[in-house]
Specification:
The chain is of the alpha+beta class and about 525 residues long. It has three domains: about 1-110, no CATH class; about 200-220 and about 235-310, Ubiquitin-like (UB roll); about 315-515, no CATH class. Helix content is about 30%, strand content about 35%. The strands form 13 sheets. It has a four-stranded antiparallel sheet. Helix 14 packs parallel to helix 16. The chain is elongated, with a radius of gyration of 56 Å. Mean pLDDT is about 90; it is low at about 1-5.
Length: about 525
């Protein structure tokens, strides 16, 4: 009965509860329903509007939408009138107590709609702009931050579909606002800190002088970083050190070491001088700790740089006393011109040499630098000629002077055979690259080597000068063996004894070394 009553009430009209999209059509004639759709769904029929960060409007044609209003009304009128009896009755009851929605008859090309949405995204999508701080000369510039945006294409297109289905024509743009990590307010705070450090020139004073550092130079000594997602204005110590290059160059002065000038056996002292150096860490620590607080004047901390050898030390260590001497005579052995020339070159090579405390003197290191004449020398047990013949007399004479000076003998080698110019056991042969004569300066001061040659008397003279040592040395050698080798050639052995007393106390008294001397083959001079 109720269905029959509903039928009689809606004869010729669309049944109650029927709607198309968002438009209620129940109780309207088809003509009225078509007019209602055209009136209430004007936007969807003609244009689609987008709302969001910006607003956009496109025609239905641009969006690929074409509604068939008449067909939609026909579908609405057919509700409850077509189909089987139970289907019709069910649709009527559904309309009486609820809503029967009729999908609008529409042709929709979503690819055209998507093209329009992509165009919107191209305009709206943007990365967030981070704020920035830049120091340019004496100025600090701030670039502000701005938000970005990222459209959600999928969700926005779903809203387009809904706007088409319900004929509302209203689409909400879905997206996310992108927030910058570094914002303008933080940049401004960092800029103010930098400006505070650059608020006027710095004045640095030291060593009776004064220098200024311009705001631009201060700015060049600042570093703006974004560590930890926040602005930091740091003091660049190395950059400030470079900006203060003229200050360091003026103040930093290396100490001048005291030195000696030798003229014969006279030794004079060239005075040393203290240097000075900026205490770099203290200086830069002071600036870094106070420049941001507005301090403009700084005192340069300066340290005294003392030379390793001061004038006073050089004077105290200057050789003033002859410690030991010895002489030989080349006329007792060989006075050929080449040998005499070699004696002169070798003597000049070591004469005037200063040896520091603890330093080891090497005869070869000095003498091997020169060119020598060919002269007699002992080679493989016989006398032959070699460049540098005669140098052993220089080294032997100096060896004995070093002994009498109480110095430590580091290296010494005897000759193959006894030589007439020196007592057996007192000699010291040398051969460049193989045999050297070395001694160590065991005194508390410098020693000066004196080595001279007197061509009139034939004397080769050696002396060691140094600070007073109160050392006495006695040396003697004695033959302990006189025999022959397997071929009947004479062979001797000599023991050398040495007594060293310092400040009246005997330090050494006994056998110093034993040497074996053999026979020289024919051809000896």
């Amino acid at each position: 009965m109720l269905a029959a009553f509903d039928y009689s009430m809606n004869n010729g009209n669309i049944y109650r509860g029927v709607s198309a999209g968002s438009v209620e059509l129940g109780g309207l004639t088809p003509e009225q329903a078509e007019a209602a759709i055209n009136e209430e769904a004007t936007g969807a029929l003609r244009e689609v509007s987008f709302s969001g960060p910006e607003e956009y409007t496109f025609s239905a044609e641009e969006m690929g939408i074409d509604y068939d209003v008449a067909a939609t009304v026909e579908e609405a009128y057919a509700v409850g009138r077509e189909g089987g009896v139970f289907e019709r009755i069910s649709e009527r009851f559904q309309g009486m107590y609820g809503t029967v929605e009729v999908e609008p008859d529409v042709e929709f090309a979503p690819e055209r709609a998507r093209a329009q949405v992509e165009g919107i995204a191209a305009e709206l999508n943007a990365e967030a702009n981070e704020a920035g701080v830049e120091i340019v000369g004496p100025e600090v510039a701030v670039s502000g931050s701005s938000e970005g945006y990222q459209m959600d294409m999928r969700a926005t297109m779903e809203n387009v579909d809904t706007a088409v289905e319900d004929m509302s024509g209203e689409v909400e743009i879905v997206g996310e606002t992108l927030t910058p990590q570094l914002v303008t307010a933080e940049a401004e705070r960092a800029a103010e800190r930098a400006r505070g450090a650059m608020d006027g020139q710095l004045v640095v004073s030291g060593a009776g002088e004064q220098w200024t550092v311009s705001p631009a130079a201060i700015g060049a000594s600042l570093a703006v970083t974004t560590e930890g997602g926040d602005f930091q204005v740091a003091f660049d110590r190395q950059a400030m050190r470079e900006n203060l290059g003229a200050v360091y160059e003026t103040i930093n002065q290396a100490p001048v070491e005291a030195s000696y000038e030798v003229s014969g056996t006279d030794v004079s002292v060239s005075p040393g001088r203290e240097g000075r150096t900026i205490e770099n860490q203290r200086f830069l620590d002071d600036i870094e700790a106070n420049i941001f607080g507005g301090q403009r004047e700084f005192q340069i901390p300066i340290a005294v740089a003392t030379p390793e050898m001061t004038t006073e030390q050089a004077e105290a260590m200057k050789p003033t006393e002859m410690l030991g001497e010895y002489s030989t005579n080349y006329l007792t052995y060989d006075d050929t011109p080449g040998r005499v020339t070699n004696l002169e070159i070798g003597s000049e090579a070591v004469d005037g040499q200063l040896v520091a405390p603890g330093e080891v003197f090497s005869f070869n290191a000095l003498a091997s630098q020169y060119d020598y004449e060919a002269a007699g020398a002992i080679i493989d047990g016989q006398v032959d000629e070699a460049d540098g013949g005669g140098l052993c007399q220089v080294s032997s004479t100096l060896y004995m002077a070093a002994n009498y000076a109480g110095l430590e003998i580091v290296e010494r080698h005897p000759h193959f055979a006894e030589l007439p110019y020196i007592q057996p056991g007192f000699d010291a042969t040398v051969w460049f690259g193989a045999l050297d004569m070395q001694f160590r300066n065991t005194t508390d001061g410098y020693i000066l080597i004196e080595e001279t040659l007197d061509e009139e008397s034939g004397e080769v003279y050696s002396a060691i000068h140094g600070v007073p040592q109160n050392v006495s040395v006695e040396m003697e050698s004695e033959q302990t063996l006189d025999t022959t080798d397997s071929e009947g050639n004479p062979v001797t052995e000599w023991d050398t004894f040495k007594t060293v007393a310092r400040d009246g106390q005997v330090e050494f008294d006994g056998l110093f070394h034993t040497d074996r001397y053999e026979f020289l083959e024919p051809g000896e001079e």
